[in-house]
Each structure stands twice: as C-alpha cells, then as structure tokens.
Amino acid sequence: MEREDISPTTPPSLAAEESQGGNMVDTPVSSSKKAVKPKKMVLIAGLAFAVLVLVLIIINFVGRSVGSLQKGGEIVWWGIKEEDDAVNSLIADFEAKNPGVKVKYQRQSEKDYAERLFNSLKKGAGPDIFEIHTSWIPDFNPFISTLPKSIMSEEEYRSTFLPAVYRSLRTEKGIVGIPLYYDAITLFVNIDIFNNAQKSFPKTWNDIIFLSDPQKGGLTLRDNDELIQSAIALGTTSNVDHWQEILALVMIQNGINPASPNIESTNDTFLYLKNFVKSGVWNDRMPPSTIAFARGNLAMYFGTISRAPEILVTNPSIRFRTVPFPQVPNNAPTDPQYSYSSYYFQTVNKKSLNEDTAWKFLKFLSEKESIKKLNSFRKISKAFEFPSPRIDMIADLEKDIVMGSVLTQATEGWSWYLADQAHDGAGGINTNIASLYKEAFDKGEIDEIFVTNLKATLSKYGIR
Description:
Blueprint: H1 15-19, H2 38-65, E1 74-79, H3 84-97, E2 102-107, H4 113-123, E3 129-133, H5 137-140, H6 154-160, H7 163-169, E4 170-171, E5 174-175, E6 185-190, H8 191-197, H9 205-212, E7 221-223, E8 226-232, H10 243-253, H11 263-278, H12 289-294, E9 298-304, H13 308-314, E10 320-323, E11 339-340, E12 344-348, H14 355-365, H15 368-382, H16 394-397, H17 404-408, E13 413-414, H18 429-443, H19 448-460
Helix pairs in contact: 3-15, 18-19
C-alpha cells in the first residue's frame, strides 16, 4: 500500500520573533505616559496575527482529526459495496428513531480505496464509519475502535452472528466490526454441463478428481492439445481467480497453518493443485476462471457469492448454483467441514466524537429487518441477495441454491490474510502475504527462506 506518511502539521514557532523582542523596543521618552512607537505597534500586531493563525490551525486540525462529525452533527460513512438507495432508506429509518442524529453515506470508488482511506485516517481526517475487508484488520488496527459493551456485549454478538463472523472480527482488543452480509469461498457448478453429462455434484476432493479426469468420462473435454471445456480451474495463479482463498483453505483442510506452514506438507499441497495443470484439466492459456465459467467453458468454479452478479451480467442465460466447498474424505462423521470466509464489514473510527452513536447505527443496520431491506434492494440492483451474517436468518436462506452453500459451512469458517478482490495496496498485509505465496506456488515449493520471510512479514504487522 503506497501510503503517504503524513503527520499533523506543526504550528509555526514564534520563538524567532520573541527572541528579537529586546532589540525592537526603543528607550521610552521622558513622559508620564509611555508612547508606543510604530515599530512596537508592528511587533504587537505581528504577534497577534501569529497567535490568530496558530489558533486557526489548531481549530482546523482538531476539526479534521474527528472527520466532519461534531456533537449533534453528521456521522460520515464511507462504503463501497452498498447502493445509495438501499443505504439511504435505512438511514432515514434510523434518523426517524433518533432525532438530532444525521448520517451521510459517501459511496467510494473501489479504485485505490484502501490507500485513500488509510491516508485520510492517518491525517486524522477520516470518516466516522468506514468499510474494510477482513484481511485488512492489521492494516487499519490503529484507527479502529471496538464495539462498546453498552451497545452489544460479546455474548450477545456471539449469539447474533455466524461463528465465522465472530471468529474473524474478534481481536485481542475486542470486537472490531459489524458486517451487513457474509461471504466465503464456495463451489459454483454449471447446471447444464452436469445434467448433460449425467453427473452428481461433488462433495469431496476425490469427487473433484473423478469428475476432472479426461480419461474417465469426466467433465474435461479436449481436442488433441486444445482444451475445449475444463472441469475445474486449479493449479495456476495467473488465471485462477481466488487462488488465494483456495490455497489457504486446502492447507487448513490438511492441517497446515498458513502462518507457520510445514514445508513438506505445504509442498505436497502445491503438487496436488498443480497436478490439475499437469493432467491437462486446466492451463494458463484459458481466460480468467470467472470469465471461463460465465462463458460456459468451465464446469466448476471456485469463487465467493459476491461474484454471482458479475457472472450473470457476463452471460444472462447461464444456469448455475453453488454447492459447499469440497472436503477431504472424513475419517469420522464428526470431522469439521472447513470453509474460508472473505467479506467486507463496517467499523468505527476511534477518533469519532459520536463513537457510541456510530456503533448504535451499525447495530441497527445489522438487525434482521434491516438485512431483509438491504437484500430486497440487492435483489433489484444485483439480481441476487447476499448471505445474512445473522444466525437467526440461516433457516431462511440455507436452501437458496446460490447463498445456501456458504451458510451451511459457516460454523467452521476461518479467515486469514489471503484473499482475492481485497486490494489493500502495495503496503497492505494481504498484498504482501499473497506476493510471498504466489512466488512460492509458481515455483512449486516453499523452503526455510520462505518461512523466515513469512514470519518477518507477519511480524511487521504485529502478527505473532
């Protein structure tokens, strides 16, 4: 993240002018009243002007340090994912219930958003509420306040939101955010390709291998060396969207901690994924996996639910659904069904003068009726609702053929600092961790140098 290192402007020193005071006052004339000479008047006027400038600088800095929020003023909210109409409708509801409170939503461009937000907060001029990705928490930790217990206790939070949400937004200093939706990596399947091949949807990685094998009547179709239809996009970083989440989750499924990876086990995982290229199931000449799936040239595609609108815009006639992320074969029925969450959430600037009111507003936005209203607007603008972050809405949505797959696995949803579509810039932890893993995966192995560099990078962001 090319973040500008900006500290508050230092007020101009008056020391130089004051040091000259003895030379600027002439010997007084012999009189009962001391005359004030023009030179002294200039000095007094200059000092008064300097003091006035200093006061204005301090007032301006203090005003900027809390954004545009003052007591009884506006709560400024920066967001990137929600449409203005949906948000403004909920703002009107909240303001009607809380006279004197004003909330102003400022939708931001996603281009360079993380850098702009970071620099604004570092200057002390950021918004009261802002939206960030789960993988950015170490980047923005210095600016984030924690959810006050008077607004929502940790026990209430844990009983309200999905286990994956609680796990990803609970930090050592407290709860750092409230989401308005939930998302995770899942498996999209082309319904027509599966129907035509008379195949069942996969549940395990063994099923994925069987469906992918060109020699066993799977879903991979080739014409000599030309790949006509791929079963699944795996094995490259150049054109497999969400390779970051896929890799992290497969590592977790195999008992590997991405923060401190076992070299041998990690290299075995790399080899397993790269075999999909070696066996001709996927190659680097195919278009990016999201586009390949949307065009109907890919039977199975790993992506987050938030990619569904993009797929439908690219190909309005495609028929698809999602199924839970495939698991390693269970040794016992009680083995966990791991998933990997990746989503944006709302948090509050710790310099906000109306911090409690901002958190109260976010709690209101996450209430069941508010989520339903947001989803009604999303259905119009995006053609899809998004999974709710609330436990009490699982039953309403888990049977949905697009949203349901991530909700059924949210109990064992984990997250880390590897995520596609989470652009935190050159200085961000997500970008730097992904760069290390990309280089290693493309090479085909990690070594002791990789482990050392990984630990050093995590340490730079305060991660033990």
